[in-house]
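Support request from a user on the community tier.

User writes: "When I paste my structure tokens into the form, the page sometimes reloads and wipes my input. The last time it worked, I copied everything first. Here is what I submitted, just in case something in the input itself triggers the reload:"
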């Protein structure tokens, strides 16, 4: 176009740098691949290989062989038949499973410090474990070591208890297992005795009170008989009244005989005198017997009535004491029978075994698990490190 100046020199253009270039150039940049590989390899050596070598050295060269003894038992209850006919035939009984509470108590007892003390006192547990335990340590330390060497498995549904004992000799492991069974049996017997005592305690107290009452009643009756020299006043009066009745019958017969003789014989007949003497003797005997029984004498009758009243009172007390004793004895026998039906037993279904080979520690299993977990730790750490490097 005319009138406009023509510029012959090219325009100066300034190149534009890409956005973010300054920041990318200013950073340190990604970690080189070789450096990453060397770091991962070093981590594998430190995290996996070195601990695994140390564990293998300990398990294969230092760790002592351990022998296992296994035993199993269950708490059972003898449920005796309550039918009197069954009891007459010899107390037929059947074994039933005890409550889970009893088995749980035994399960906790085996792992308790008290069990450790009993086993230590019986067979010298500190000496048995002296290879890996300082005998001078406290009972608490021994209990913790016991928890590592004795494993107890309890099946709550069936009540089965299985115990695995580890020791450094087969016989020692079996000895510990035998002692665990023995102490468990003692504990179950104690629990059974406590249950029986609780079940029969009140019945026994009632029976003792009834026995004491019966003894007192019988002693009082004995004192009365010794004082009065009368076994049974009622029986005594009946005997005396029977004797008086017999004498009166004889007296009547003699008097009739006398009347007949007077009408048929002379007055100086000797038989009349003999009959008169016989009548007089019978009358005197009747008078004596009446005096002894108090019949016809108000004072005597009152005294004898008092004796009869005292006797009847003592007899009622004795009869009531006997009935109370019979009832208390029946109640006690029933409570005792019920308690016997709740008797607990320790049934051992696996006797303590004696190992022939040392299955523990499971060296290769432990090494395999250690290798697995160490490899997982190293892998996770490596992935985390790679992720962090990629974000830089």
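"...and here is what came back when it finally went through:"
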């Amino acid at each position: 176009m005319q009138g406009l100046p023509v510029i012959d020199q090219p325009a100066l253009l300034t190149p534009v740098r890409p956005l973010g270039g300054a920041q990318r150039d200013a950073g340190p940049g990604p970690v080189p691949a070789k450096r990453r590989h060397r770091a991962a390899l070093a981590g594998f050596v430190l995290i996996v290989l070195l601990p695994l070598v140390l564990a293998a050295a300990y398990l294969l060269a230092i760790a002592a062989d351990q022998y296992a003894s296994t035993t199993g038992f269950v708490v059972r209850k003898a449920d005796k038949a309550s039918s009197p006919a069954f009891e007459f035939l010899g107390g037929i009984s059947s074994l039933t499973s005890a409550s889970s509470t009893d088995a749980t108590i035994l399960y906790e007892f085996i792992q308790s410090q008290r069990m450790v003390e009993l086993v230590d006192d019986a067979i010298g547990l500190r000496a048995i474990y002296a290879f890996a335990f300082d005998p001078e340590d406290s009972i608490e330390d021994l209990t913790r070591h016991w928890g590592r060497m004795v494993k107890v498995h309890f099946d709550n549904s069936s009540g089965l208890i299985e115990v695995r004992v580890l020791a450094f000799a087969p016989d020692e492991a079996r000895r510990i297992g035998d002692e665990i069974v023995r102490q468990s049996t003692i504990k179950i017997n104690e629990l059974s005795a406590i249950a029986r005592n609780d079940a029969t305690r009140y019945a026994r107290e009632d029976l003792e009170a009834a026995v004491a009452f019966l003894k007192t009643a019988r002693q009082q009756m004995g004192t009365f008989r010794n004082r009065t020299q009368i076994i049974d006043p009622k029986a005594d009066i009946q005997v005396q009244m029977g004797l008086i009745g017999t004498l009166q019958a004889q007296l009547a017969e003699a008097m009739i005989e006398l009347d007949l003789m007077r009408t048929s014989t002379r007055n100086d007949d000797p038989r009349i005198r003999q009959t008169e003497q016989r009548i007089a003797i019978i009358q005197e005997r009747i008078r004596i017997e009446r005096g002894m029984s108090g019949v016809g004498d108000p004072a005597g009758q009152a005294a004898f009535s008092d004796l009869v009243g005292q006797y009847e009172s003592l007899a009622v007390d004795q009869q009531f004491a006997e009935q109370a004793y019979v009832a208390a004895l029946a109640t006690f026998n029933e409570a005792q029978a019920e308690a016997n039906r709740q008797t607990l037993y320790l049934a051992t279904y696996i006797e303590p075994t004696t190992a022939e080979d040392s299955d523990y520690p499971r060296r290769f299993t432990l090494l395999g698990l250690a290798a697995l977990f160490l490899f997982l730790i190293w892998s996770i750490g490596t992935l985390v490190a790679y992720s962090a490097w990629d974000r830089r």
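Agent notes: The reload is a front-end session timeout and is unrelated to the input. Strands lie at 67-80, 93-97, 150-154, 160-167, 343-350. Residues 65-201+343-366 form a domain with the Bacterial polysaccharide co-polymerase-like fold (CATH 3.30.1890). Escalated to web team.
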